[in-house]
Design a protein that fits this description.
There is one protein chain. It is built from six helices and twelve strands. By secondary structure, the chain is α+β, with helices and mostly antiparallel strands. The strands form two sheets. Strands 3-5-7-6-11-12-10-9-8 form a nine-stranded antiparallel beta sheet, sandwiched between helices. β1 (3-7) and β2 form a beta hairpin. It is globular and about 50 Å long. The N and C termini lie far apart (43 Å). The structure holds zinc ion (ZN) (2 copies). One zinc ion is lined by residues 31, 33-34, 88, 139.
Length: 315
């Protein structure tokens, strides 16, 4: 059972899930995600698996905050694990484009399904990968958090997009993409439907974003061919990241989509990658200035990282 507590200083919700402390360190020779474990079908390609240590659960109280300083409310929502592949030690970069296409198809199906849930406002699809990120399980997987509210970074993006649209009468993201394509120095790779670049304003070393060329807000609005192109560009980027230093890059991969409810014509689908390796031997830590002040220190230059990643073959 989980609850949300209001942070009145930062004006955001904190998800309190005491049961997450009991997350086990798995026995070395057993993985619940492996066919034959008894926890998953004996044969699968990709699979939605309920998160056993969920921050949001369907049996929590509904999200219905009362006014007040020390307020709390229910954390009703859903947390899924997305099993990418049955093979335990396969890095996501080694999955075929066809297999990534299956993952993307599953994301889309689950996105649409969760969107019909009356308590769910935002569907957050992401992956943490690498021991340095704190991932306890090497099995290739991502996660879906279906939030009963719009989380703060998403709200900030929605506000930025709405303000830009109001002032400039154009999509903020389409404009950024146009500028990046015209400039070219920060481009990493592209295909018929998507472009990957290191944003001018990158916060993490080697951070990149994938923008769709066409303006739309979510997986639900993607065509079949766009879904295939998405699989191809994710595969290319994952290979580049893992080739950059010759070992699997610890990173976060975040799908940024329009909220589940309502119309968000200014929002534009994109994916963020946050690698935390600032060199072959050094990690980027989210420390005092990032955590306490909210200002990121990035000691890499976007244009140089883009060139490095562009030259790194996707193998
Ligand atoms: Zn496994
Ligand atoms: Zn756009």
């Amino acid at each position: 059972m989980s609850e949300l507590r209001w942070h009145p200083l930062l004006r955001q919700w904190v998800a309190v899930a005491a049961n997450r402390q009991d997350r086990p360190q798995m026995p070395k020779d057993w993985c619940p995600f492996d066919p034959g474990s008894g926890r998953v079908p004996s044969d699968y390609d990709v699979l939605i698996y309920p998160n056993d240590f969920a921050a949001f659960t369907p049996d929590s109280e509904p999200f219905s905050p009362e006014p007040g300083l020390f307020r709390k409310t229910g954390a009703r929502g859903v947390c899924d694990v997305v099993l990418y592949h049955p093979q335990h030690n396969l890095p996501p970069s080694a999955m075929s484009v066809d297999h990534w296409r299956k993952v993307a198809g599953l994301w889309r199906r689950r996105f649409v399904e969760l969107g019909t849930h009356p308590d769910i406002q935002y569907i957050y699809i992401f992956e943490n990968t690498g021991v340095a990120i704190g991932v306890t399980m090497p099995h290739p997987h991502g996660q879906i958090y279906a939030f009963p509210f719009i989380p703060p970074f998403i709200q900030t993006e929605l506000d930025s997009a709405a303000n830009h649209f109001r002032d400039q009468n154009e999509c903020l993201y389409c404009r950024i993409l146009k500028e990046e394509l015209a400039d070219g120095r920060r481009l990493v790779t592209e295909n018929a439907a998507f472009v990957d670049f290191v944003p001018f304003f990158a916060r993490y070393p080697g951070e990149t974003q994938i923008y769709s060329r066409r303006h739309f807000g979510s997986l639900a609005q993607m065509t079949e061919s766009e879904l295939s192109e998405l699989a191809a560009i994710i595969k290319a980027m994952r290979m580049k990241y893992d080739s950059l230093y010759g070992f699997p890059m610890p990173l976060m991969m975040i799908l940024r989509q329009a909220p589940a409810k309502g119309d968000w014509p200014e929002f534009h689908f994109h994916i963020d990658f946050y690698p935390i390796q600032r060199s072959a031997t050094k990690l980027k830590y989210i420390a005092g200035v990032e955590s306490g002040a909210g200002t990121f220190l990035n000691d890499t230059i976007a244009e140089e990282k883009a060139e490095e990643l562009r030259k790194t073959p996707p193998v």
